[in-house]
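Onboarding guide, step 5: your first structure request.
Type a short instruction followed by the sequence, for example:

Predict the 3D structure of this protein.
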Amino acid sequence: MPRVAIIGGGISGLTLAYRLRQYLADVDVQILESEKSVGGKIDSVKDQGFLYESGPNGFLDSNPSTLNLSKELGLGEQLAPANEAAAKKRFLLMGGKLRMLPSSIIGLLTTDVLSWRAKLALAFERFQSNKQNLPDESIYAFAQRRVGTEIAEKLVDPFVTGIFAGDARLVSFQAGFPRLAAMEKNHGSISKGLKAARKARQISNPEGGRSSGQLWSFNQGLGTLIEALAEKLGKSNIRQFKATNLIHNKEHSKWTVEGSNGESESYDLAILSCPAFSQASILKNLDAMLA
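The system replies with structure tokens like these:
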């Protein structure tokens, strides 16, 4: 029986293993996960009667793949759409207190979350020069250039953390927000670009219905999807194994996965579904340039 190793047991690795088992029943699929539990960044936590997510808190149905997978796994009745009214209420933890972010122009003018200097920077963003020949920059650098350091630190940095679970100073602006990058390039500012986008939506969607995807989760959190996938795969197909090196035996067309504890396993195919920095470490001896 052919053996396949999937290195990384996050949502991508679990879904891939599920599909391989579904379409190739005669293949032995093994997930090698470095942590004690699968799921990657998805982690639903129940504490003192509360449910919260320490990672992503939902998925959009603008691409129906996750929604369809959930229904396929029998989770249809557990799906929970986001509360649109609650979703409009955004909070920041500042100075040890939760502060509600403004959701209107009047609210923006009266809030004390931002100084008047920062409010003026927002108001005059449309008049900032568009530096066409800049190389790619971080999201933080872009925000700092367009609306100043205060907004970059207070609003943009936590916003990026919420979306990418990453550092705004390290995430590429063009890669993370290509539509905003295009707005600055084509319209000269984000303000003008957003205004043009609103006009385009009004023309294409005069009824004013939903123009973007619905956000979904589950009654017991996103971890529900992870648990369902893991149950379908079975414990025998999931191993705690921290892969450190990958060796290709061309003569026998085999892949050897070496682990941190000195163990090694041979497979007919090895697939990397772990984060890029982990892949780089695993591949450094096999292909230094790729790593």
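Each response can be followed by summary notes, for example: DSSP finds twelve helices and 14 strands in the chain.
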